[in-house]
Amino acid sequence: MKRLKGCVGNLLFVALLFGVFGLSSYFSFKFFVRGKSIPTPDLVGRSLGEARAITSDLGLILEFDVANARNSDTVPAGSVVWQSRREGRLIKRGSQLYVAESLGPLVLEIPDLSGSSARAALGEFSQRNLNVGTLSYIDVPGASGLIATNPPVGTRVKTETPVSILVAAADHPQTYVMPDLIDRPLDSVRVNLGRLGIELATVRFESYPGIPDGTIIRQFPLPGAPVNRNRPISVVASRDSDDLLLH
């Protein structure tokens, strides 16, 4: 019995010894590996020469990823704009760290859209990531469409630069500010707009108790909007009878 207890005790001691040895080996290996790892440096914004020097001192292999080169408004051309591993994450010495080069700000040229309509020019500038500044019209006999831009055609500019355009349109209609027509008599409004060459495109009547017949109760466009003879104006006027749509 004593011999059996001794054997069991010896077995437990051996198991404990192996357990301690195993844990010791595990933690020793973990700290060994961790000791070979370093935080990933932040290379974004640094010149390629600085990036090489930093990675060389840390025992990392710097590789350039041409496919990830990109334009940047904040990182100068020739500096690091992207890196494959996030700053601060552990990386083993001897590992490859990929970076990409900044191509600098995206530079565009003002396109030559001579003769294009204002609508076509606006669409083209929008597709090219350029903003339209002032849109102006001028009467030029024998000419039509876009005739000038500011900045001029061929000027190199950054994205979203406002571009003012000048369009020749001999028959460009005079533009007015839409007046407030509410509570005004329909007949007098029709006459006054007609003097400006503007016609009411649509007149609709609605029953509105307490309001004299022919009084305008709604309008479109709203007061203050720009209008001309090419922009339809619609009003709703009061009337005792059922709604009626006149053209």
Helix content: 25-40%
Helical segment tally? 4
**What would the average pLDDT be, to the nearest integer?**
80
**Rg result:** 39 Å
Q: Main sheet: which strands, in order across?
A: 13-15-12-16
Largest sheet: 4 strands, mixed
Q: What amount of the residues lies in strands?
A: 25-35%
Spell out the blueprint of helices and strands:
Elements: H1 2-35, E1 37-39, H2 48-58, E2 61-64, E3 80-83, E4 90-92, E5 96-101, E6 107-109, H3 118-127, E7 131-138, E8 144-150, E9 156-158, E10 162-169, E11 176-177, H4 186-195, E12 200-206, E13 216-220, E14 226-227, E15 233-238, E16 244-246
Parallel strand pairs: 2-5, 7-10, 12-15
Antiparallel strand pairs: 1-4, 3-5, 6-9, 8-10, 11-14, 12-16, 13-15
Question: Tags for this entry?
Answer:
247 residues; alpha+beta; Trypsin Inhibitor V, Chain A; 4 domains; three-stranded mixed sheet; 26% helix
How does this structure look, described?
The protein is an alpha+beta fold and 247 residues long. It folds into 4 domains: 1-35; 40-105, 2-Layer Sandwich (Trypsin Inhibitor V, Chain A), CATH 3.30.10.20; 107-169, 2-Layer Sandwich (Trypsin Inhibitor V, Chain A), CATH 3.30.10.20; 176-246, 2-Layer Sandwich (Trypsin Inhibitor V, Chain A). The protein is 26% helix and 30% strand. It contains 4 helices and 16 strands. The protein has helices at 2-35, 48-58, 118-127, 186-195; strands at 37-39, 61-64, 80-83, 90-92, 96-101, 107-109, 131-138, 144-150, 156-158, 162-169, 176-177, 200-206, 216-220, 226-227, 233-238, 244-246. The strands form 6 sheets. It has a 4-stranded mixed beta sheet with strand order 13-15-12-16, covered by helices on one side. The termini are far apart. The model is unreliable at 26-34 and 242-247 (pLDDT under 50).
